[in-house]
Amino acid sequence: MRRLLLGFIIGALPYVALAELRTWTTTDGRKAQGEIFEIEGDQIGLRIANREYRFSLSRFIDGDQAYARKWQSQPRCELCSKTLGTRTMEAGGKTYHTACFRCLACKKVFRGGDEFRRDQWGMLAHVDHFSFVATCGSCGRMFAKREAKREQILDSNRFACLTCLSNAVLEEKALGLVNERVKKALSQIGIVKPEGKITLVLVDKPTLDEEAKRIRASGKLKGLTLTKFRTVTKGNVSNTTFEHRILVLYGLPHTECEAVLAHEHMHVWLNELFVEAPPDVVEGFCNLGASNLLKIETNKLSSILLDNMQKSSSPTYGEGYRKMAEKLSRLGWPRLLAEMRSRGKGK
Ligand SMILES: [Zn+2]
Ligand SMILES: [Zn+2]
Ligand SMILES: [Zn+2]
Ligand SMILES: [Zn+2]
Predict the structure, then answer these.
(1) Ligand 3 centre from 167 Cα, in Å?
(2) How far lies 138's CA from each of 22, 34, 123, 159, 302, in Å?
(3) Which domains are delineated in the chain?
């Protein structure tokens, strides 16, 4: 007997600009050199060694908090986050340096009546010039297609911004390392090692879509789990063995790759228990695995990815995730896992 089971995850997200480098000290005495690039509510965005992180402001000593509040009180350019001078432009309730307020494709400063689009990172482009604009498939940042380096073009129509590309998973050895981290984190919530062997495969988008089509999966896939099982019955004793293949899109930044892998490992767990549940329960549950990994990370990408799941209008990945997250906060992991296990059809 053979059967295929499946699963996947969607995501889309974003990055930003400069301020002054200084030493930041946490209340437990740790120090890092970094610069603020944004403050939202009680979350402070710090760029440390060229990567964007987000922390709760209360993690820092009083002097740092005061510095951050002062930074926040000064009017700043939406694009570069430096303080505004006399030459400024306003659009859609945001203020920019006149020099910053330009289309990333044609480089011209916007004029009254121009229609433009703004990404989550403040990058701007004429609507009419959108065919010259590439959007990072992971963080959503826009950049000019003609300025893209060859390695930023991952598939025919899939792009990576330089920041996401700088820590992209491009070979299976790197995927294996990310996978170790994911397995460790999941084991801490009770997702134990599966019985069957898992083979990890990095694939390009056409291959992933092709595999998905074969098992009638749809959506903006970034990962896919294929489980084969075989049951051998001797007398009245049945023995079931499993084999899993997890396909992961190549070129995802570490953080997103962790989330995708975690989601797929949750499918493996469900598949071995033969859990049968509606798609919103299954995908919502698997996204809990992804969110678990994203909450461990403190970089800006992870908080954007979490936010995307939180706001996703998808009935399965969004709605389903929110329902399952609510359930998790009520039950906790051990009881939630027990409940899912009880939906299993046994082997
Ligand atoms: Zn899934
Ligand atoms: Zn500016
Ligand atoms: Zn333009
Ligand atoms: Zn990106």
Answers:
(1) 30
(2) 29, 24, 15, 9, 11
(3) 22-73 (2.30.30.700), 88-162 (2.10.110), 169-342 (no CATH)
